[in-house]
Amino acid sequence: GTVYLNGDFVDADQARISPMDRGFLLGDGVYEVIPVFNGVPFRLDEHLQRLARSLREVRLNDPHDGAGWRRLCQELVARNGGGHLSLYLQITRGVGATRDHGFPEPPVAPTVFMTTSPLPVPVPAADQPARTAGVAAITLDDIRWGRCDIKSVSLLANLLLRQQALDAGAAEAILIRQGQVTEGAASNVFLVRDGAIHTPPLSHHLLGGITRDLVIELCQEHGLPVRERPLQAAELADADEIWLSSSTRDVLPVTRLDGQPVGDGSPGDTWKTLANHYIGFKRHLCGL
Ligand code: PLP
User: Which CATH class is domain 128-286?
Assistant: First the structure.
């Protein structure tokens, strides 16, 4: 496929970056992942706003304005045939003369890389709620840093946590920091108790998920009671339902936690209701 690298659209095989790139040496960069349906980037403005925020928080100059990013995204999607894709954007602090923790002085141009891949999950089908079995998750101590609100490419802790979950036969790790639920290794967490939906409030300890925001919006629009509040880890054990949300996995019911069934061990009614609204919204927006 075609990728974008520092101003050029090139074949993926032809793209080259320096081993002195600070993304490679130091994990000094930020990224975004944007799902594309029918050639339409989903919630593009929201993703680009989060990217601009990540760049600001790590003191990287934004190489493009919103219109510039939108043009690049649309052109890359078009050059890859449109359809259903996962669109990946990464910006690093560029290529320094030496490997140094301090920022290059004078500053160098950031490295901008964009690529597409097939969407890892199928486009949500109208009968998704009927077909979804749910996934297993395990709880793990949140060993990450204090700025998980930044979408940083330094993901080593997230990778170790996700792999620990996979090794345990689970799809995701639900992370606990000082007795409170933060999020998944690559997803946000929701809990349902007595018909009410709860998710941890935004803080430096979790990423403000674009899907999280959409779930909250859809709940509000359709009269499902939803609250952002601190969740104690112990509440997971008596939850009726637990959900994970992310751009690449939609809203997924967790039906086993730490080897025990969640609720009755099958996807819950509140999830089915929300999933129907979610699918309807996507279909409406992307002409699916
Ligand atoms: N939290 C983390 C740590 C993530 O990596 C992700 C994305 O994969 C999310 C939450 C969900 O964010 P979004 O809904 O924007 O994909």
Answer: alpha beta
